[in-house]
Amino acid sequence: MSSAIELYKEAYDLDYNKGDSLYAEVLYKEIIERFPHSDEKEYAQVHLERIAKLKGNPNDPSFKPLRSGGSGGGLAVVCFVLILMILTGLGFAGYYGYPQYLRLASYELIIHGLISQKNNDLADAERMFEQAQRIYPRNSVAFRCLTELYLQTGKPEKAELVRNQWKLLMPNDIALHTFTSRLADSIRQEKKP
80, 124, 131: which is closest to 106 by C-alpha? Predict the structure, then answer.
């Protein structure tokens, strides 16, 4: 024996999803007879009135089901998956591409600094090397160029500060070890009277 809600669900499914309004009408009437005090009875009466009007003019658009079982849902899922894939691709490109962009920008600044150093514009070279170091701190070339410039211009204290930063960021860099010995020699020669 079915409950009022079960009968109503079955009738509704027949009426709106399967298009069998004749059998749905029988079930709606059964709900009204068997469950006269339920909420489903009132819903069934509304549907029976609609079915009665539908029999008068079946082409009336106001009697069409609210939801159709068309393929619009499948298209929405496909669009959602495509958008999700595009966003994931953009995320990966940003995650991996942006550091590469920063690395290349750092190398461009280093090249600019080396050209300035060659043209004896040491202040501009220092500015370019420092900016390259800030943009991409993992670039050992920027540290090396800046420390070499400080040694060349007679600023071993600054060279030592940059070397310490370099050592913190990249302790296993081979160029760091060779520079450290050169820096020690430079400091010793500076202290000699």
Answer: 131
pTM score, two decimals? 0.50
DSSP, res 58: T
Q: What is the CATH superfamily name and number for domain 75-191?
A: Tetratricopeptide repeat domain (1.25.40.10)
Tokens for 13, please give them. Answer: 């499914």
**Crossing angle of helices 156-169 and 174-191, rounded to 10°:** 160
Instruction: Write out pLDDT tens, residues 115-125.
Output: 999 999 999 99
3-state DSSP: the chain helix, strand, coil percent, rounded to 5?
80, 0, 20
Q: How far is CA 44 from the centre of its chain?
A: 49
**Which H or E element spans position 10?**
helix 4-12
Task: Give the C-alpha separation, 157 to 124, whole Å.
Answer: 20
